[in-house]
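Milestone M4 deliverable, item 7.
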Amino acid sequence: MTTPEKDEVLHSSDEANQGAGDPSPSATSAVEGGAAEEAASPLTAEEVEAAIIEEAEAVLDGVLEESEIVAQAKAEAAEWQDKYMRLHAEWDTYRRRMNEQREAEKVRAAEKLVSGLIPVLDDFERTIEYAQNNGEVGLLGGVQAVHNKLVDVLKKDGVVVIDPAGQAFDALEAQAVATVPDDSVPDETVAQVYQKGYKLGIKVLRPAMVTVTTGGPKREAEQTEE
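Output delivered:
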């Protein structure tokens, strides 16, 4: 049989044993917090320095790579600019040379024409002098000779006389100033040439002024040679 004092001592001992076997929440939190602090401990100075150096090297590599791209682009741009300047200079030289050649050709053509007309002027002067000394006798023949000589000079330089009398009317080389009824010839035949025309090569310098027939049969289409 136990006494009250002994029961109190046993009760206190049980509580102590219970407290020792089951740790309190505050004690558990303290242990876990210490482990977390140990896991998240700050890096050492060497590790921080290594990380900074690695990051700096990465940035430097990127800058160097961009610098190489920029340098390559500048080199290509300079090369294209040099090609453009060379081409522009060559084009200016070519254009200047062509202008000089055209001017020289004009001068040569004018010299050739004037050289051919000088004898014709001499013939005109001789004809005028003959008419002054001998009257009008024989003047017509002299004027006709000078005219023929002038036409020959122009023909040598490529001038073609447009004299389409009796031919089919061509609106590209002649200008109709009147119509003449005539059923004896095909319709739209040149009846009379009031003023001859002239062309140089294929370019009409002046169309001929003509009269054109009407009332005749329709002109048959010209057959092209095969």
